[in-house]
Description:
By secondary structure, this protein is an alpha/beta fold. A hairpin with a 2-residue loop joins strand 6 (127-140) and strand 7. It contains 8 helices and 17 strands.
Amino acid sequence: MDVFVPIVLISVLIIVTALLILADHLLGGDEEKIVTLNDKEELKIESSDTLLNILSENKIFIPSACGGKATCGLCKVTVNEGGGELKPTEDPFLNAKEKEQGVRLSCQVKVRNNMNISIPEGLMDAVEYRAKVVNIEELTYDTKLVRFKLLKPETIEFKPGQFCQLRVPGLDVIRAYSIASDPKESNHVEFIVRLVPKGKATTFVHKAMLSGDEIILTGPYGDFYLREESNREMIMIAGGSGKAPIRSIMYRLQDLNMPRKATYFFGAVAKRDLYYTEAFMEIDKKYENFTYIPALSNPAEEDKWEGETGLITEVVDRKTGDLSEAEAYLCGSPGMINACLEVLRKHNIKEENIYFDKFD
Ligand SMILES: Cc1cc2nc3c(=O)[nH]c(=O)nc-3n(C[C@H](O)[C@H](O)[C@H](O)COP(=O)(O)OP(=O)(O)OC[C@H]3O[C@@H](n4cnc5c(N)ncnc54)[C@H](O)[C@@H]3O)c2cc1C
Ligand code: FES
């Protein structure tokens, strides 16, 4: 009896595995398939892996901050033919128009047939970098600036506001981090990383990563970037590590000699959450048309804070007038962004003039 039970279990397992292999074969698992890209390029594929992985193996790096778990919604591509049925995991990330156009989460689509797909040209520019950590600086008790030197390739071209992805060595974890550095500095990138308790990537960055470590980055990605052609008044709002892409945008605005009126609201809880305050105050002093407004929602008594207080939404509401001709750049937690969007709409901002990156 003791010997019989494991034998039955093993036999069942073997039969199930054989059936799965047969099913995979019948579904086109190991047959050659062709993925046609933007009606230009053809990829010959033998596995039935996800479209995201297959593209990555072919050096086409689609943003994928959750590493394929269908929680970030960043890995969208348009599947014109051969994508099969939409999965329930994709549904929350796609609006009606996207579904009609065949937009899919590439991490959820398996390549089982020939496919015809479209990828925005901008995404085709993302590259995989080998980079070396050259400096780690503590900005607050839970926020660090990490500076990387790009080793191979040695340079990056990005628009201020865009992000890269960092692969945590030894773990199947990929996370998005906005580039915080000066876009002129093409052989280095800097990230501002805020520790998330028990967070996989941020715990690695804060507790294990050392100067000299080599890391894989991909990028640049994203359509959150400074619209340089516009001369609209700018409202920038950030909380926590949301300061990262705005820092990069500010480098560029200074290079352009601050060509437009701009106000930057930075929301924090108490003084210990503020960083780069003096640097931004200096810019405020230097340019008449730039204003920096840090605001604390719950300053400690010892902070002796004389600046703006309240939630950043309340401060924005108090300090802004009509925004019908303005442009807004928002960066931070989804909760903060959603609340700020309501306030901006109350001040008549036009939807097409709002740009944001939700750090979720
Ligand atoms: C486009 C984009 C740009 C980003 N840029 C930056 C940046 O410049 N700097 C930065 O620090 N982060 C940035 N993020 C967020 C970053 O990608 C990670 O999500 C974050 O660092 C947490 O990763 P983790 O692996 O440590 O946590 P995980 O292991 O993914 O999360 C652990 C737990 O914490 C929760 N959680 C995740 N993030 C937060 C949070 N912020 N606050 C509270 N709970 C959280 C998760 O839901 C989960 O339950 C960006 C995200 C996006 C999409
Ligand atoms: S990689 Fe995050 S949803 Fe696909």
